[in-house]
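Following up on my earlier message about magnesium ion. Here are the inputs again, as you asked, copied directly from the submission form:
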Amino acid sequence: MSLLNVDNVSIFFGGLAAVSNVSFDVEKGEILAIIGPNGAGKTTLFNIVNGFYAPSKGKVSFNGEVISGLKPHQICRRGLARTFQVVKPLQRMSVLDNVIASSFLRCDTKAKAEAVSREVLQFTGLTEDADIISKGLPLGKRKRLEIARALATGPELILLDESFAGLNPAELDVSIEIIRGIKARGITIMIIEHHMKVIMAISDRIVVLNHGQKIAAGLPAEVASNPTVVEAYLGAEH
Amino acid sequence: MKRYFPIIVLAVLCVLPLVGLNTYLMHIVILSVMWAVCGMAWNLLGGYCGQVSFGHAAFFGTGAYCSGILAMKFKISAWYGFLLSVPLNVAVALSMGLIVLRLRGPYFVLATLAIGEVFRIFAENVVDLTNGNLGIMIERTWVEKTQFYYIVLGLGLLAYAVVKFITESRWGYYFVAIREDQDAAESLGINTTLYKTIALTVSAVLTGFAGSFYMVYMGYIDPQIVFSLGEISILMIMVVMVGGVATFWGPTVGAVIMVILAELIRSIPRVGVAYQTLFGILLIVIIIYLPNGLVGDFPKIRRMFQRGAA
Ligand SMILES: Nc1ncnc2c1ncn2[C@@H]1O[C@H](COP(=O)(O)OP(=O)(O)OP(=O)(O)O)[C@@H](O)[C@H]1O
Ligand SMILES: [Mg+2]
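Thanks, got it. Here's what our run produced:
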């Protein structure tokens, strides 16, 4: 049984089918990349999986249990955490408190929540920023704070929405190491990314979306040489 | 020093009646503590959890009428109103929450404001139960102020302990997380509806205690007083804004200042009747120059004075 099953999912906003008849599986332990041009429906797909939207059609199952229709907090408790493309730090809280608010999900005392949080901050390289009010954090670190918070909820599957966008090359390398580290902990990863170099370096499989539809799926090498994918990405220039 | 601050304040407050303040000053102190309770209660929901209510008079009035109606209709001691107000305000908070907690921002504000007004109009019209606009007059238990003072001080301590305990626990983290970003909070596993309901309910019960106290202390209530939008709901917000939103001591500092200010302004001939206008102007000044209130912007104020002295 796969960890996550997206079964024929569609969602309509007015007349627009932002996601249409998309199906795929995520296997335990893998890194699955979702790629596609701007407006392809990638973030919308995450919003469906994470429970912000109920799909208009189809269903999502996690560990064999249907989760579409549940609320985001219920889905998070079942072990599915996410980050936001447009970062959403708890602005007037310190970096540490941001993470503590998440780790309380699986800790019954504040001491435990803080211990877990400090460990996660260490892992994401934010220890030195623990006491900074997160409003003042530069973008690169805010992106990492998103990851730290999601990890602190103790997920089995983590959804990363463009955690690399806007990072400089040095930060990029740090983040790639963090992603590898997450995988090494046995956490399954679904990642949306535009950086093809990063995608090719870390992903086990790729699903390609365009105009809300799944146009290709497979190993990185297969997808990279798929003419439909090349067309979707370069179509405008041909 | 900072650690002992609460203990020092408590010690001073305990011996305060012994220094022989006159009745009028005791009255000011009692009202200040009562408003501090309201401010702390409002702050829990509005300051920490970020749900700005313009309808807290609903809880204050419900508390007051619990005491008043028990004494007038059922000839039971008005003090039992404190007990009765708990289940009643929990019920009011839960049903109010059902309506308002799904709303965000200005819609939440307007819905709470409307509900507060519904309570006032209800109390004005259900004359059989409330005496309507005639109000309820009861005999006060003591003529002296001292006993009332210790009672309200007890309420103040209760509110302080509740707020302190909650804000330092899991609930406190969740409340602030909801204030800062509800969607982020929800996706991090926080049941935002549940925790907003908790904040609203605790806030309602504490506010109700202040209302019950108002009845037993003042001896007279009517709907225009205890369900008042301007003099209860909005004054509660002002107390917190002036003192400092989401700070421990803000509501208390704000309460003392607002009560004294109200008394001072009202005693000025001719201008006094317009005290609400002056409050409005004060609020605007505070929002512009001290958006975090006197407590929240204390470092800023200190710098200002240091620069003035140099
Ligand atoms: N709540 C909504 N209401 C209406 N339209 C929406 C909503 N959310 C997304 N859309 C639309 O759905 C389409 C897909 O958007 P989505 O954000 O999922 O794209 P994306 O693949 O994440 O793009 P990007 O790479 O730019 O992040 C867009 O046309 C967008 O305008
Ligand atoms: Mg997106």
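One observation from looking it over: Residues A 42-43, 85 surround magnesium ion (ligand 2) (CB under 6 Å). Hope that helps, and feel free to reply on this thread.
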